[in-house]
Specification:
Length: 48
């Protein structure tokens, strides 16, 4: 599934997706959980 397809499926703009990816893409799942941001954990669970 492409990034564009994921964005459409979840109602997120492409720009937002790539912004989140640049911000949270290098984190481990445990680091994201400490942020207490559900969207970061959900994003990181989608491995490319």
């Amino acid at each position: 599934m492409s990034a564009a397809d994921l964005c459409r499926k979840h109602g997120v703009s492409d720009a937002t997706f790539y912004k989140w990816r640049s911000k949270y893409g290098g984190m481990d799942l445990s680091e994201a959980k400490r942020l207490k941001a559900p969207f970061a954990a959900a994003f990181l669970s989608m491995r490319w």
